[in-house]
Amino acid sequence: MQNEILFFFSALGIFNTLCISIYLFLRYKVFKPYLFLAIFLLFVTARVGISCFYFFQGKIAPIFIQIGLLSNLLMGVSLYIFISSKHIKPKDFIHFFSVVIVLVIFSIAIPFSSFFLLWDHTIRFIIHGILTIYIVGSWFQLYKKHRAKQKIYTKLIILTAFTLLCLSFSISLFTSYIIGPIGATIIIYVTILKFFLSARKSNKYRNRKIEDKTAEKLILEIKQCVVDHQLYKKQNLKVKELADELGIQPHALSQILNDNLQLSFTSFINQLRIREVKKMLTSETRLTIEAIGEEAGFGSKTTFFKVFRAEVGMTPKEFIKNNS
After folding, report:
1. pTM (whole model) above 0.70
2. Other CB atoms closer than 10 Å to residue 221's CB: what's the count?
3. DSSP 29-61
4. The domain defined by 212-322 carries CATH number 2.40.10.120
């Protein structure tokens, strides 16, 4: 009966991890760091699931043992990218898929089933060594973000949970193998609880006006995020997309803009686009006026001219003439 309870508890954690991974995949369809969190959780599911199955069944096909060991590296690289990147860049995909390609080639050339002793005495230690490097590197990246005064709370919880997960698997080598899956389940539920509490905390903005000091800080963060990463250049940018980047609820973002800047989200973004257009109109000679509007993020010529005239009080041609 005890084994059945342990199996149920472990399997439930694995199932929930898989559900969270799928949820993140569906929610973050564009290339954002949370997409790599989804990938990370997917490999956590594979690693913990194989360990759980091995403990309760006693026998397992060599290919699954190989997948379980290699999942350690894929967990490490995907978590490192999630921790270190605020916006996913091509180099992050190159990094991830380079590791995937190397592992595929390595698995074909030196399969676990034919080189059991080599895997058991050497390769698994190399894998755990590289995983340790990724964990240490992730902590270093998190420390850099803390020094830069960036928000790291969510990433801190996830990285701490994964570090404890790796420790639980290490301890299981000297005690009982089930400690790994059980530890993973506990850590996963603690992480879920953290996200639940964060979501409740973000709802504090729903029913009351945000304090001035808090609003000023949030406005600076919003402007810095949008300007530094030129998010306003993305046509049809949605309030939810920016809110996700900032880690706040969409209604909180809209309320901050409405209450403290007296601007709707669309007006706020259009002002930044017009500012970019004005810079380009006085410095860019290769592009047409319409192309400049499109480059700045406007989806249509009509909207561009209408917003420009409303904000500047003249047409783009008149602006060029007055500033030439």
Report:
1. no
2. 17
3. -SS-HHHHHHHHHHHHHHHHHHHHHHHHHS---
4. no
